[in-house]
Amino acid sequence: MPRFSIIVPSHGVAGRLGRALDSVLAQSFGDFELIPVCEAPGSAAADVAARHAERDSRVAPVHAPPSAGLAGARNAGTRAATGTYLLFLDGDDVLVPGALAALDARLAETGPVDVLHFEHERAPWWEGEPGNPAAPLLARAPDGAFSPDRAPYLTGVGLPAWSAAWRRAFVAERGLAFPAGHFTDIGWGGQAMLLAERVAVLRAVVVRHLVRRQGSRLNLPGEHHAELLDQVELVLERAAGLGLSAERSAPLFDQLFTAVLRTAARPRRLPSGRRAFFRRASTLYRRHRPAGHRPPRGSLGVQHRLLASGSYGAFAALRGARRAVARTVAAVPRPRGLRTRLLYRMHLCRPLDPDLAVYCAYWGRGYACNPAAIHAKARELAPHIRSVFLVEAGREHTVPDGVEYAVLGSRRCWEVLARATYLVNNANFAEGVVKRPGSVHLQTQHGTPLKTMGVDQSVYPVVAAATGSFAKLLGRVDRWDYNLSANPHSTRVWERAFPGSYEHLEYGYPRNDVYLTAGAGDVARIRAELGVPEGARAVLYAPTHRDHRTGFEPGLDLEAFCAAAGEDVVVLLRAHYFYDRGTARAGGRVIDVTAHPSSEDVCLAADALVTDYSSIMFDYANLDRPIVVYADDWDVYREVRGVCLDLMEGPPGPVVRTPEELARVFRDGSYADAGSAALRARFRERFCPFDDGRAAERVVRRVLLGEPPEALPPVIPLAERVPAPAAATTLVRS
Are 731 and 625 in contact (CB under 8 A)? Predict the structure, then answer.
């Protein structure tokens, strides 16, 4: 009887099978049998196995049809095996030199064990450092042979079948076999460890696993992902029949559902049937959840709770939010490459340039928002300061002629970030940006908060999971020297949401200055550029982002709204900037202005605003033009996203909840009547106290020129301001 039976399924790996077999035959320890499992004789893999069998009598090929899959091939090899221990080796992997000798020596130390786990190396297909994912897990295991009760985290679920030696008599006595279908390692390993009585580990690499360039076949899209739940249910049912202790059932449960949630959170893996997958997983979760089970912490814990409650909508929203954040984070650069990091460090050693300011808006989306308005005013009031605007690659066209810019992630970008005395952003600079002594960071924000922000988001699971580390967020807040505020409400929210030692600047938003400085000619020019017909009532429709949705949904049939609201109505559609793909989404009487670089221009062109809960309403209120709140899902938004004020108690205009109500207020003119003006007046008093057309000047004088607060231009009272005129003449001013 040989010491080891090494079973090598070969379907689909004929080109690499020879190397796998050679790695076994080259072992210094020779007491083994090698069982390649091939398709029918005459197949490419069978020919490779036959040649090896001709040269070495220890090679004994067997055959299994491809339809049997990996499980069938391994089971066929197991039935043919005669060795004391079974080893499984994938056809494109290899045994490292000395592997069998190390296994034999370890078994001599421990005596007979049912399962001997060992380490394996994951080698990238082309370049990169190999990994040893099993090492941290096995490092915690007891020395010598032990009962699984002493290492409950060794569940067999997270390790592949080829990362252990299995005593053949134990497999036969317990009637173990690889369950049919995909993810068979989970079913095999989970059941085996439930039934094992003596276990040991070898803290050495035995198998070198070659990571395929295209990734694991199990990660490819397809209906086969539903079979993961078959394996999970198989293991959970076996565990339930054994009456496991809480110490063993909890780690098994957590590891199984970590695998489930990993699949559920990747929509690409499940082209269809995602809801059915989630529903079945939720049923399994509730049925088999151990008594007193506590979900893990962090984002994974949020997913556990959503799965337990069967909240597919919230889970899908969380998934979409995480992907959106990931896309945003991916667009925020860090120094990449050794040379770039070294250059950045070198520039950090140079003195700050006292006359250099760096600006960025919306993670580099372009020349926009408060940073752009401050930049323009700085060129007028502080021409000695060299200003560089940062934009991501492909957005250079948004920068006006004559404005110096640098592409995010470039060496020049990191140079100016290292040496600038003034750094101005409406979001946050990259994590790798160092706050140098003597530098001044100005956070301008990019809206008045209606939804929860910063650490206030921590109690809203969908948003908290997408936000990431709050500790890192607060680390970025610690770089701020000044934080711009448009109104007292914002100041209070920022203090709570972004606690820090920065100074609040209640100066208004510089981007809103244009609403008080533009004239009728500017409005007419912008409307012509956007294609608004002469004499039309232009209604700006600007819905906000929904954390509980995975993509942009207009929420309204805009063409139907135009038809019902009046023949002179056209809609300017501006989706949230998360959904700006630079392409139009509609036609006819709907003009898609999502990709237009300036939200201020779009607001100037509009005769009225329709929004849900977007912060654009606070900015648009400075124009003193009609605003209608379309609150069809206010209760859902408030519960999922969280809000820091009750919009329904003090709206800027009429609140409607159905498309019919929305069309009616435009058809009968109540959107712009005296009642609407009264609501807007109260709203403006609360949220527009500082936006008088001189906010940018105050910021430049205070931050860049260092003037004391008492020397800054005083705020013009609300009643004395004259907003830019609307094109329509029937509006009621407040």
Answer: yes
